[in-house]
Design goal:
The structure holds 2 protein chains of 2 kinds. Chain A is of the alpha+beta class. Chain A is built from 13 helices and 14 strands. Chain B has 1 helix and 7 strands, in the order αβββββββ. By secondary structure, chain B is mainly β. A 7-stranded antiparallel β-sheet of chain B has the order 1-2-7-3-4-5-6, with no helix packed on it. In chain B, a hairpin with an 8-residue loop joins strand 5 and strand 6. The chains are: A alpha+beta, B mainly beta. At the A-B interface, helix 4, helix 5, helix 13 and strand 14 of A face strand 1 and strand 4 of B.
Chain lengths: 428, 128
Amino acid sequence: MYIKDKKKVFALADCNSFYASCERVFNPKLENKPVVVLSNNDGCIVARTSEAKALGIKMGEPLFKAKETIEKHNVKVFSSNYTLYGSMSNRVMKILEQFFPDIEIYSIDEAFMEISSLRKIYDYSKYAMKVQKIIFKWTGIPISIGIGETKTLAKVANHIVKDNPKIKGVFDITKIKNKETILKKIKVEKIWGIGNKLSEFLIKNNIHNAYEFIQQNNRWVRKNMNILGLKTKMELNGISCYDLENSFKLRKSCCVSRSFGRRVTSLKDMREAVSTYVIRAAEKIRNEKLVANNINLYIRTSPFNRKSEEYYVNSISIPLDFPTNNTIILNKKVLNGLNKIFKKGYLYQKAGIILSGLETENTDLNLFKKNDKKKEILMNAFDFINQKYGKNSLSIASEGVKKKWLMKRSKCSSNFTTDLKDLLTVRC
Amino acid sequence: MKTTLYLNSVCAGFPSPASDYLEGEIDLNRYLIKNPPATFIVKSQGNCMLQAGIHSGDLLVVDRSIKPKNNSIAIASIDGELTVKRIKISGKKYLLTSDNKEYGKIKINSESDIFIWGIVTKVIHNVY
């Protein structure tokens, strides 16, 4: 029997100023105060609270540009602590999963949910408000939930929540049949799926908000913005084109690269650095049960100090004899490659490795694959120990112990939730 | 993630008579943590809660999801400072006290800058 697909309803849960909110959980003094969080190496502002936003601090602004405002208004500044944010994100997502069975974790601080199955039992808004309260109580993280007929409309609903402090965290756009007024408030650059270039193009054509966008005829949209633009238009009209993506997309490559906290000059320090990246990258692909066919290694000096420091950049592509995710094999290959491209006398600023040609790990026999079982067991143990006793409990000797080259993260908070040595101290 | 490593090879032959009775080992995480996404571990500092069995340096398991009862030990935020306090509930009134009598009682009302961060459910104390 043919059963007509019931109308879907989507919700988007988005953590408010997520990184800054994580810092506030463990430091209640920051409540109601302006807080910003910096990118790797303390370069740019990547998160800000509404209080910091009100002071005119912009997203992505370099720290030195905002320095005056920060000092004048005593804005609290943090280096990004991704270990902490990742752990808090896991908690939030786990709670969301308990309450919404159909969920797609979209980013570190956002998740889409398909909620039409709740139709008969609950009022969407009331249910969402309940979950929002629970997440705040259990984790201390404030979230906003937007509800709409499509993913794009759920995003729109979420923007409405964020722009209107009066709305208490949840907005259900499905209750509003004529969405003209609301869509007029959404600038084209805020529409999900419309990037900087497209929004520039639309503005040039005198299309400034979501309502003006959906007035355009399909042929024009299709011609100028291809099929994705058309889908966005349909989604804004309440016709769902994007479903939840439950199966994680297989990634094609895995990249680990960092700028060094200070310049690296010796081969020894450089070996330590790239070995650490190999360990991270291998761990990542092992987690996803993938194996790599190729490694790229690159090293470079700073491109911005060409006057005072001589510029040098080099990379090497290292094919692997057979697909692997074994840290020891990968590390050996990378260190061999490093010997070939490393030149003395330069002030290196960045290095990175890219594992590519990723495929799913399978047990197909490989003529050239020697008995790898032992190494596999070793790698399992390696990951297990690092998960159990904290990162870097076990490492390869070439990774080094001191890590002079580590990122500059001068204002980093502690790993309150992942490291016993870093626990929050509470007075009594 | 839990992995069991079997480094020994497996022998075909008579199976262990105990294999039907194998159960998981005792898992302290399950005993200590009832609601993982809402549970945090903090370290105590100071000796004002000795009567509650909390010594300086002990680890406190804090559950943010449960309701306080009378005499519950709580992590309270007082003027942005996190402290360990005992909660006394009488009627609708909530009081924060310290087992050390030198510290006064603090009333919680809607205007004060005080909130309950979480409830302490277990104390982990080192004796060796």
